[in-house]
């Protein structure tokens, strides 16, 4: 007998509805959900065929404790007692990473534990490594850090501008919806990317700009719009502030100068700008433009500047707050939106409520304990501050920083030097291998909860199969640790006793104004709901900023082009490395490497190189090549393609074999958001020589200022 | 908008098929996928509307006053069409094809049976994708996969090529799915009513 269980895809931030078919506690097929408003009956290869990792033989089946240097199986009680005791010893020197793959309920409980029991705001998640500049910039300029529109707005728009993202690989179903708009309505597409992505086939304008030059790009576009008299003066006057100062910065440059910096034709830059500012009338609907971006904008030392420049452009043209327009940072992980909403960030409580006088009061009252007021450390700083002793114990849930942190050799040394490390996850990945205690967690298929997707839609995740081995849902494990520590902390153990995820969600909704109208009962009855949804009768919100911004007026922030990257090519490392994604793998690959079919389709790291550069290095298609940077090396298979600019190479950041892009990348940071510069570093490429080479990577652990 | 369906008054928007299914009445509709617009190719959904035989999937409910799914003529033509479809089974005993799954259960409900099988020339198997395989012998050429790829995902990696007896489903201009522009999204696999496109490994 097969059973059908409706749930939500565990991979990307699109959040497609799935129907899991289960026979004998195994997933036998994943179907689409025709009625789901985010995915409208579509899925991509990962959602449809990529869930076999759930039953993979590598799943952790029992807790593990390090004894005599080895990780050995232990009972839950033993492991939890040990964790509770050691955590108690490390109050004040403790930090925690939450998982953007886990549910809202898991995230909410984890931040409650860290704040209430551990007494610190040192909690963060992977947004730090992807969209923190976007979130930072949006908070400053609008007062909210979420995607302003819905996916349906892409289909209602007249122009979509994709900057530094590759939805065909990383958000495939959003790409399908965009293709539908282009094919059936004639929506125009502008692509800005150093690499020619698949969507370029349908683009009206493709700007193959140099990495790290986005400020020039957007300021140049603004200048073109200004010169053409297409500024949205009504919107600027009624809805914004700081215009004059920003305008002065834009007037300092010409379109031609900016085009030169970006390495694109001035005419193309101008055309793109005018198309975005003044999209064509396609039918009876008011024409609008959507601005969509990814890591290509954010993962730079000037990431926050880039994001400001982009948002300024949206304010300047008034392309937001109406159907068919909006600003969308494409969120990576399935629940990266929800993890932030639930409060797993060091500078605010659930619902992005900052620690002002009045904010913590309702939390403290409901939770029966005091909360710390000093903002905590951001993820990248937590790792850096291990060296100075500020952080000595860590609790890492559903994350594998030793694949995702920049300059991996250096990060590994730091994590290794912790006094006490607990990792809670599905697999014994690179970080878990260094842990003192490893706790086995359930996958999405084994628990109930909710995920919040890129369009702010909260959707149900439902238990389809029994937990694998002795694994348990994250929230249950955290509650068990917390209850063991309540007595010491003068807290009531009932603070961590829940009948199930529905009760946790109810608590979260009560404390988070924009979720207050949601409940499991409603989500089960009506399907996913988009926040803000402030009261039970509220239908949810499909686009933001229609009337006003959460901070009142939208704010222009003047920015000027800084150095394109900290590390630029030189004679020793003459190529620019650009990193990104591929369709057949997810993120660092901890999960997709455990899906056989995906590995069969894409088992080797593809190194995309321009034919001219390949010829110069004597490389032909499919040669095994080695990339060197100042920090490490990786090998992969050469793919000759003119989709990359001459002088640059591209690799996805998945780890395949011993190769992961982040052995190469630089740990230079954006000062404001602390995002690492994943997108640009200097490398050298060589054809692999046929000999045994035991030498380690050059410059291991060499630190950069 | 209301219409008389098998003698009962029902509210109806959309197509006659939508009204029929909403009323809980079973009716074959082999080429109509839940996710997709009607193709109107298989003719297994024929019903009588105001005395005329129409394809329920593509006939708007607003244009009908009286619809009967079980008149003698409608049943006879449907049975005939289903028998022709069953006769497309090229290999007995294959796990897919019209004699298995959705088509088979529909046929038995409609009382269609077949003892003669057309000899299909094409028996190609494309197992180049690690995610799904294509078995020409089980294909009834309903075109659902083509529509799924084209109108749902907007990829157009799969198509119908050739004419008459030589018509077959192909991975577009490429020789195999592996080499084609296919993104392995599986929408065609989900749409296929005869498992001519079938998932590999994991699924049953
Ligand atoms: S597009 Fe994203 S959410 Fe949808 S099926 Fe693919 S991975 Fe899952
Ligand atoms: S799996 Fe390939 S052929 Fe089938 S619908 Fe998707 S892209 Fe088209
Ligand atoms: S379902 Fe109506 S013609 Fe195929």
Characteristic key phrases:
heterodimer; A: 705 residues; alpha/beta; N-terminal domain of TfIIb; Rossmann fold; Dimethylsulfoxide Reductase, domain 2; 4 domains; 6-stranded mixed beta barrel; 24 helices; 30% helix; globular; B: 204 residues; alpha+beta; Ubiquitin-like (UB roll); Alpha-Beta Plaits; 2 domains; 5-stranded mixed β-sheet; 3-stranded antiparallel β-sheet; 17% strand; binds iron/sulfur cluster; binds FE2/S2 (inorganic) cluster
Describe this structure in words.
By secondary structure, chain A is of the alpha/beta class. Chain A is built from 24 helices and 26 strands. Chain A is globular, with a radius of gyration of 24 Å. Chain B has 204 residues and is an alpha+beta fold. Chain B folds into two domains: 2-75, Ubiquitin-like (UB roll) (Roll); 125-199, 2-Layer Sandwich (Alpha-Beta Plaits), CATH 3.30.70. Chain B has helices at residues 16-22, 72-86, 101-109, 144-152, 187-191, and strands at 2-5, 8-11, 46-49, 52-55, 66-68, 125-126, 132-135, 159-161, 168-170, 197-199. In chain B, strands 2-1-5-3-4 form a five-stranded mixed beta sheet, with helices on both faces. In chain B, strands 6-7-10 form a three-stranded antiparallel beta sheet. In chain B, strands 8-9 form a two-stranded antiparallel sheet. The longest helix of chain B is centred in the middle third of the chain and has 15 residues, at 72-86. Chain B starts with a strand and ends in a 5-residue tail after the last strand. Chains A and B meet through strand 3, helix 1, helix 7 and helix 23 of A and helix 5 of B. The structure holds iron/sulfur cluster (2 copies) and FE2/S2 (inorganic) cluster.
